[in-house]
Design brief:
Layout lengths: L8 H13 L4 H8 L3 H14 L19 H35 L1
Helix pairs in contact: 1-2, 1-3, 2-3
């Protein structure tokens, strides 16, 4: 079984087009381009669903506010409040520690 490898956007387009031109022979395409069967299959499915834009690598990309669903917006807000809450707890502990040091010294 071939191990997957990193590919460029242009390579993925070429691989998918070759696969489609050859009756979706995923195995032969994977062997020819030295990528895994799963990569070829996944890229082909993404191409079918979203065209060329489906082959873009979006890992690590944060959605813009207008792209979020209501549930995602609420989740983002909860995370923001939790971070702020944690910061305030740390600040509070720091001030208590400082007061304790001042009383002793």
């Amino acid at each position: 079984m071939a191990k997957g490898r990193k590919t460029t956007f242009e390579e993925r387009i070429e691989i998918v087009r070759y696969c489609l031109e050859n009756e979706r022979n995923y195995q032969r395409t994977a062997e020819l381009f030295a990528v895994s069967y799963q990569q070829v299959y996944g890229w082909t499915k993404k191409y079918d669903a979203d065209g060329v834009h489906g082959l873009e690598d979006r890992r690590g990309r944060t959605k813009q506010e207008e792209e979020l669903t209501n549930e995602e917006k609420l989740e983002r807000r909860i995370q923001q409040i939790e971070r702020e809450n944690e910061r305030l707890r740390a600040e509070n502990l720091f001030l208590k520690k400082l007061e304790e040091i001042e009383r002793r010294g």
